[in-house]
Specification:
By secondary structure, the chain is an alpha/beta fold. The chain has helices at residues 43-53, 70-81, 147-150, 159-169, 186-190, 204-211, 220-231, 275-289, 293-307, 320-330; strands at residues 7-11, 14-21, 33-41, 60-67, 85-92, 98-105, 111-116, 137-143, 173-178, 199-203, 238-243, 246-251, 256-260. Helix 9 crosses helix 10.
């Protein structure tokens, strides 16, 4: 059997409509839109788009649902333009493509989000076709933003947990990412999936929601302790936890590593949308290529820093060597 290569990303496919406004209005008031631009969004879309932009060099596949509309067509065209195999991305007539209106105040950069779950909300495990895909990793994101896959069955399983089990049985190494939801069923939705997961990405807020305690973002020892606690909930290989200050990983094989984030100048930050996804992409690349834990985390924090140079989720992503050079140029935080 030939070696498995590449990433199959399933789950959230979103088009962000970034709208620059003069002021955020109160109810019944008016704001003026000075510019508008579309961008990619969602865990699955960001994963494969960023891997393509950084020059990963291995096969990329997408799976999920889009609507038969302008945004859905845009996603399919974008995949084609970036060499992403979208044959498992199905066009549905049952819902619109998921989208987010990102209202951004020009003077402050502050953003307010209006999200339509659309086709992502009706994605079910049987909509994700795994047969014949030779990818090494199966990535599913975001849990807690995929209504049908988040449904908890009478036996405690979820659509996501069953899909991840099916992916494992098919020979994939499985990965998940979460959304920072304040939903009261956070643990009920996430926990059933963990024993079917090889690699888990989450931030300090999500780790706190899962563990029931606050996790400080600037304390690597506390972040490592939290990552270890999440690992103990059933993740099979590795938990990768990140914050704005850096990232850590805790492995079932005893791996413990941390890396501070890049000291990127605040005045040069155009937006932080997609920075967490960019970090996950950098680490995923490193895992695929067999890099050390330190190199995986360094690639992650540097790719996240490159992402800060643009207001959209992927507009700032640089090739890996150039992203690493940002870390050398600006240095890393003390933590």
């Amino acid at each position: 059997m030939s070696e498995r290569k590449g990433v199959l990303a399933a789950g959230s496919w979103i088009v962000d409509h970034v709208k620059m406004i003069d002021v955020y209005p109160g109810e019944n008031a008016l704001a003026l839109i000075s510019a508008e631009s579309p961008g990619n969004g969602g865990g699955a879309y960001n994963m494969v788009k960023d891997l393509a932009l950084m020059g990963a060099g291995f096969p990329l596949y997408g799976a999920g649902l889009v609507g038969d509309d302008a945004d859905g067509h845009r996603i399919l065209e974008d995949c084609s333009a970036h060499g992403i195999d979208a044959t498992r991305l199905t066009t549905s007539d049952r819902a619109m493509t998921s989208y987010t209106d990102v209202m951004t105040v020009t003077s402050s950069g502050k953003r307010t989000f209006f999200h339509h779950t659309g086709a992502n909300a009706i994605l079910r495990e049987e909509d994700v076709h795994l047969d014949g895909c030779p990818a090494r990793f199966f990535f599913l994101g975001y849990l807690l933003l995929l209504d049908a896959l988040d449904e908890v069955a009478a036996d405690g399983s979820t659509g996501a947990s069953r899909l991840l089990q099916r992916a494992s049985d098919a020979g994939f190494e499985t990965m998940i990412d979460l959304v920072s939801s304040q939903a009261g069923n956070f643990r009920e939705v996430v926990t059933p999936a963990l024993r079917q997961v090889d690699y888990m990405f989450l931030n300090e807020f999500e780790a706190g929601s899962l563990l029931g305690r606050e996790i400080p973002e600037d304390d690597p020892a506390a972040l490592l302790d939290a990552a270890t606690a999440v690992l103990d909930l059933g993740v099979r290989k590795l938990v990768i936890l990140h914050s704005a200050k850096g990232g850590v990983m805790a492995g079932a094989d005893g791996t413990r590593a941390s890396h501070a984030s890049v000291q990127f100048p605040e005045e040069e930050i155009k937006g932080a949308a997609g920075a967490g996804d960019a970090f996950a992409v950098g680490v995923t690349y490193g895992l695929h290529e067999g890099l050390s834990a330190e190199e995986c985390l360094r690639t992650g924090v540097c790719l996240a820093a490159s992402n800060l140079r643009d207001a959209t989720c992927s507009g700032g992503i640089l090739p890996r060597d150039e992203a690493l050079a940002l870390g050398e140029e600006y240095g890393f935080r003390e933590w």
